[in-house]
Amino acid sequence: MPVKRPISKAVLLILIFSLLVSFENCTHFNKNKKPAQSLADAGKEWPVYGGNAAANRYSGLKQINTGNVKNLQVAWTYHTGDNTGNRGTEMQSQPIIINGILYTTSPKLKVLALDAATGALRWQFDPFRDKEPTLHANRGVVYWESGADKRILFTAGPVLYALDATTGLPVNTFGENGQVNLYEGLGRDVKGFYVVATTPGIVYHNLLILGSRVSENADAAPGFVRAYDIRSGKIAWVFRTLPQPGEFGADTWPTDAGKTVGGVNVWSGMSLDQDRGLVFLPTGSASFDFYGGNRPGQNLFANCVVALKAATGERVWHFQTVHHDLWDRDLPCQPNLVTVMHQGKKIDAVAQATKSGFIFLLDRETGKPLFPVEERPVPTDGLPGEHPWPTQPFPLKPAPFARQQFTPADITDISPAAHDFVAARLKQVKTGRSFIPPSKEGTVIFPGFDGGAEWGGNAFDPESGILYINANEMPWILTMVEAKPKGKELVSAGHGLYLQHCASCHGPDRMGDKHIYPTLVKIQSWLSQA
Fold first, then answer.
1. Using CA atoms, how far apart are residues 216 and 276, in angstroms rounded to an integer?
2. In angstroms, rounded to a whole number, what is the distance separating the alpha carbons of residues 373 and 250?
3. Mind listing the pLDDT tens digit for each residue in 307-329?
4. CA distance 449 to 504
5. Contact by Cβ (8 Å): 204, 272
């Protein structure tokens, strides 16, 4: 099992805010104190997570600029009431705006419809009104309409909901009373497994194409991508991200991998080329994140950009950014659909940013890289039973937007004591190059588990051709620890669950890490049962 510890600070390169939200509130800004003009009236809206189907987080509105941004005043504030002082009040939702109505989710996963100009509540839907809540990060909702039929689709726990966009009431003709179980369509019985969808899906005609978030441990469900008929809630097609026997890519896994291996999910959102009818999936790593002895091979379609026919789920092309991932290098954000000048021609492309600080620029129709990508040899001294892939892809252009190595020259100089502490620790671990396999001694992961690109995504300006990236650099130490019991000691059911689900952060001894994760020793002395 892994023990992850940071050893230096994060460095923020470029940060672009497309929406401003407070911890418990949705706050709308206007340069005047008068009520804001609705975006519908201005001819501009924010109808999709990411701004548009291309995921480019771009707006052509020019009312706010560098000359007047300092004069912004709060126009209205809406209090969700979810900040009760307890856990479960994390705000990650990116609102959408349709016809002057702002739709969003609250920290406790209520769906809100607000007047975008005034903040007045139109309606509210609480999926946990009469049951125990299953709280998790949620980044927003999806809108669909056909004539007078207008719907909001969102997920809470292992359930997909369809609501009437005008009233907020469940659409009873969708699934069972407006609900569809996310356990269905995953190829094996995963009832009770962790299956949610933190990021909204994307709409193609009458289909909702939806990814999922699953466990990153050995008990993970498969991360198959499913398309749902928005009218009925029935599954229209399934793309098996873990290929089954006889399917393309199955030979990159052991024969029985489909029965036991999980992950390879699309948790960070998708982008869509409506004209070409192509949907682009950024897939995650296979589970378990840091040990792949049970899954030797290249492991398609983990860590891939995959282009599918949106109508049928048929694979058109794929490009793998990491082979046999052992470093939690799941693709962290939506691919940006961009148009670039390349060798004197305008080329429609897909720009995929990664946790490694790379950008892979791929032809949108073929998946072929626009710039050379080298397969470079990497270390293969893995743990017992592990078979690290001998090469990894390195794009030659664009240049990495994050540093690729953490060496003694990069140690903090914030104080002599801090420098000496990190220098001493660095001598005990493996560092100095990319893709060093996890080890018992400790391996520096850089730019970090949450380094490089982040789930907030990137912004592309079609007028200037510039891609803006929020990038992090944070070295971590990954130390693998033997989980087997000593001698004939038996592991209790509770201890086994702890090792499986908790030890990766809090450590096998429950001591945690003073920098990030608290100790769980004597937890009853400082936390109540409630």
1. 33
2. 24
3. 999 999 999 999 999 999 999 99
4. 13
5. yes
Q: How many helices, marked H, and strands, marked E, lie in the chain?
A: 4, 34
Distance CA 56, CA 205 (A): 20
Q: What is the CA radius of gyration of the chain?
A: 23
Strand extents, DSSP E, 22-94: 25-30, 73-79
Task: Report the distance separating Cα 240 and Cα 281, nearest Å.
Answer: 12
Cα of 75 vs its chain's centroid, Å: 31
- The closest of 312, 306, 408, 402 to 357, measured between CA atoms, is 402
Structure token pair of residue 151? 């719907």
Question: Residue type for 365, please?
Answer: E
Q: Which three-class secondary structure string do you get for 399-415?
A: CCCCCCCCCHHHCCCCC
CA 422 from centre of chain: 30
354-374, pLDDT tens digit by residue?
A: 999 999 999 999 999 999 999
Q: Checking DSSP bridges between strand 213-214 and strand 262-263, what pairing results, if any?
A: unpaired
The tokens describing 322, both together, are: 């990491």
Phi, psi of 446, rounded to the nearest 5 degrees: -145, 135
Q: pTM for the complete prediction?
A: 0.87
- Listed in sequence order, the residues at least 6 apart from 61 whose beta carbon sits closer than 8 Å to its beta carbon are 39, 42, 44
The burial class, CB within 10 Å (0-12 / 13-18 / 19+), for 383 is: middle
> What tokens appear for 109 in the block?
């996963």
Residues 6+ apart with CB under 8 A from 281: 211, 225, 239, 241, 266, 270, 304, 305, 306, 307, 308
